[in-house]
């Protein structure tokens, strides 16, 4: 494989910039809304044991391997996942390993931008003193408002109102913002925004955290203290279960692994793409660990201390019923802010925090496909942004239209953020540990490293991580496909809206497969000329 | 909140905070870090180009 180092390429402007960009891609709604819900649904404090195991044995090792493969691919002249995997494997067929890392973030973007629009909408409502849902009527009222706001009451309801639908305008505003930043490029778009947004996000989170931890029963008008709220989340023995019973439940280990994957963005194709813009002598070991631990800090230390205690103090143990990702954020918390002194202010800060977290994540989802269009098809920035804009606009409209019960959103999330990611993680780990030269891979992580890597890392990456991942995958297949609790996911794709989703997903896979095939032809010609 | 709850919360929150803090300080204070500031191309190569 020829090295294409003489081509003009983009690089990160600063080390802090790349760390904040990777951290921004990881810090998202999963940290502040999904994580607390997962903890209280899976055994409280006991959940942290499988969570920490997954963080140390899956999250960090896979992130290190991705950073190393990404930087090596970048050194060989490629920035898109197909180009990077083709370069590091030295085979044309290797490019197809980059298929899922391109389509996964694109598919996630299609629904993520809708959620981003909800966050922006709620932030603006609070800013102008219009609490969403008239929460004085109870948590059911905020739930009803959210269902209508998100179009969950029926397919096409967001489009029936046409130009008067505020939700659509909020989604369009987020869509335009993302593509404007992507068009400005790596340093002037993504890096610039993350350098502003991440510190702002931390400030917002700390303000909310301080407000929550200083709440008193007198202020909430209830009988629960903040300590009881913390106990509701962190006590290892939850009502009806024992510590060992929870620890022996395979679904808890699966949920913990899923949370680490969803949260750290490993195997999404984002890290490998961002790392390809790092220079060949730059450290990746410390940068990777900093990004992962920064994400973990946001999740455990900020997300883990703010949502549940606040909601518990106002709602009591009934909060468990609304602790899902969306119901916690858009149903329970608006009720909490309605009851709280200066609720509009804190509501605005909280949803603005979610909005910032969502934008820094969604930005990163566009870069792998943009890089593929540019280096695989030879498109200029404007053309590649336009093409991806068209594809994602169609996808986001699809998700926004088929919004009844959030079916399309949920289906895209299931297949992209769970199935494709797990499959890609296994493929990547086996590639790094068993197909490529493993010693060279470890040396690649150590190259320019500004920290000492654990001696056990090669053993973990070669044996523990693949076995752990395969066990998780087998368990996941059993729970979700063979013996599903909530109806078969595959059967759901055979009729009605599910069938449209299936056609859409297959269409995306076919389209990007063709693009990759065309890119291989182009790269071959280019290499033959050199 | 039980004693075990306090212990788990302190370990989880303290551990993540320590790790993130250690990494951040190391990034900031490692002497060679400043040498890693690069700007080979401060903007996309074609951002001012007209698409053909």
Describe the structure.
The complex is a heterodimer of chains A (530) and B (52). Chain A has 530 residues and is mostly helical. Helix content of chain A is 74%, strand content 0%. Chain A has helices spanning 15-26, 29-41, 48-75, 81-89, 99-127, 139-150, 157-160, 166-184, 186-213, 217-220, 226-234, 243-247, 250-264, 270-275, 285-315, 325-339, 343-377, 381-401, 407-435, 438-446, 457-482, 496-529. In chain A, helix 6 (139-150) packs across helix 16 (325-339). Chain A starts with 14 loop residues before the first helix and ends with a helix. Chain B is mostly helical and 52 residues long. Chain B is 52% helix and 0% strand. Chain B has one helix and no strands. Chain B has one helix spanning 3-29. The longest helix of chain B has 27 residues, at 3-29. The A-B interface holds A 8-16, 19, 44-46, 48, 52, 183-188, 227-228, 230-231, 234-237, 279, 282-283, 286-287, 289-290, 293-294, 296-297, 299-301, 304-305, 380-383, 450-451 and B 1-2, 4-6, 8-9, 11-13, 15-17, 19-20, 22-24, 26-27, 30, 32-33, 36-47, 49, 51-52.
Q: What is the H/E order of chain A?
A: HHHHHHHHHHHHHHHHHHHHHH
What is the total tally of β strands of chain A? 0
Q: For the residues shown, what is the average pLDDT of chain B?
A: 73
What amount of the residues of chain B lies in strands?
Answer: under 5%
Supply the number of structural domains of chain A. 1
Globally, the shape of chain A reads: globular
Question: Largest contact between protein chains?
Answer: A-B, 51 and 38 residues
Main sheet record of chain A: none
The CATH topology of chain A: Amino acid/polyamine transporter I
Mass-distribution shape of chain B: rod-shaped
Strand content of chain A: under 5%
Rg of chain B (C-alpha, Å): 22 Å
Counting copies of identical and different chains, the oligomeric state is heterodimer
Based on secondary structure, the structural category of chain B is: mainly alpha
> Would you identify the CATH architecture of chain A?
Up-down Bundle
Mean pLDDT of chain A: 90
Number of helices of chain A: 22
């Amino acid at each position: 494989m020829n090295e294409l180092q003489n081509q003009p390429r983009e690089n990160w402007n600063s080390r802090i910039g790349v760390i904040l960009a990777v951290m921004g891609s990881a810090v998202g709604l999963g940290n502040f809304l999904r994580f607390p819900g997962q903890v209280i649904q899976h055994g409280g404090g006991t959940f942290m044991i499988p969570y920490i195991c997954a963080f140390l044995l899956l999250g960090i090792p896979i992130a290190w391997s991705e950073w190393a493969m990404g930087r090596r691919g970048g050194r060989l002249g490629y920035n898109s996942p197909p180009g990077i995997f083709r370069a590091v494997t030295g085979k044309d067929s290797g490019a197809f390993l980059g298929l899922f890392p391109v389509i996964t973030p694109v598919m996630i973007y299609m629904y993520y931008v809708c959620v981003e629009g909800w966050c922006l909408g709620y932030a603006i409502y609070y800013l102008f003193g219009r609490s969403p849902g008239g929460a004085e009527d109870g948590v059911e009222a905020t739930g009803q408002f959210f269902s209508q706001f998100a179009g969950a009451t029926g397919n096409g309801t967001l489009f029936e109102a046409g130009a008067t639908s505020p939700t659509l305008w909020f989604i369009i505003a987020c869509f335009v913002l993302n593509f404007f930043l992507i068009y400005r490029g790596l340093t002037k778009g993504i890096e610039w925004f993350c350098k502003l947004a991440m510190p702002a996000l931390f400030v917002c989170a700390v303000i909310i955290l301080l407000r929550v931890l200083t709440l008193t029963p007198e202020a909430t008008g209830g009988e629960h203290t903040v300590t009881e709220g913390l106990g509701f989340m962190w006590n290892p023995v939850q009502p009806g279960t024992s510590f060992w019973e929870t620890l022996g439940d395979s679904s808890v280990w699966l949920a913990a692994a899923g949370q680490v994957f969803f949260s750290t963005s490993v195997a999404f194709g984002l890290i490998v793409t961002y790392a390809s813009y790092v220079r060949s002598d730059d450290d990746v070991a410390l940068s990777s660990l900093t990004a992962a631990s920064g994400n973990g800090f946001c999740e455990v230390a900020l997300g883990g201390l703010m949502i549940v205690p606040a909601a518990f103090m106002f709602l009591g143990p009934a909060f468990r019923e609304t602790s899902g990702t969306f119901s916690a954020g858009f149903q329970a918390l608006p009720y909490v802010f309605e009851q709280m002194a200066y609720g509009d202010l804190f509501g605005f800060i909280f949803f603005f925090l979610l909005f910032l977290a969502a934008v820094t994540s969604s930005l990163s989802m566009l870069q792998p496909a943009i890089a593929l269009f540019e280096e695989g098809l030879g498109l200029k920035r404007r053309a590649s942004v336009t093409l991806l804009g068209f594809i994602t606009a169609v996808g986001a409209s699809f998700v926004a239209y088929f919004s009844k019960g959030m079916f399309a959103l949920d289906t895209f999330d299931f297949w992209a953020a769970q199935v494709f990611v797990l499959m890609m993680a296994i493929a990547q780990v086996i590639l790094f540990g068993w197909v490529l030269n493993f010693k060279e891979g470890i040396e690649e992580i150590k190259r320019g490293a500004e920290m000492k890597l654990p001696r056990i890392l090669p053993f973990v990456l070669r044996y523990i991580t693949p076995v752990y991942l395969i066990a998780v995958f087998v368990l996941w297949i059993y729970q979700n496909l063979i013996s599903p609790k909530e109806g078969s996911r595959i059967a759901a794709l055979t009729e009605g809206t599910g069938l449209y989703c299936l056609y859409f997903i297959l269409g995306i896979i076919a389209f990007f497969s063709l693009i990759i095939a065309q890119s291989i032809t182009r790269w071959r010609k280019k290499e033959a000329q050199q | 909140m039980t004693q075990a709850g306090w212990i788990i919360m302190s370990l989880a929150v303290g551990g993540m905070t320590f790790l993130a803090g250690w990494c951040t300080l190391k990034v900031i204070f490692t002497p060679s870090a400043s040498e890693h500031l690069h700007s080979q191309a401060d903007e996309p190569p074609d951002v001012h180009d007209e698409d053909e």
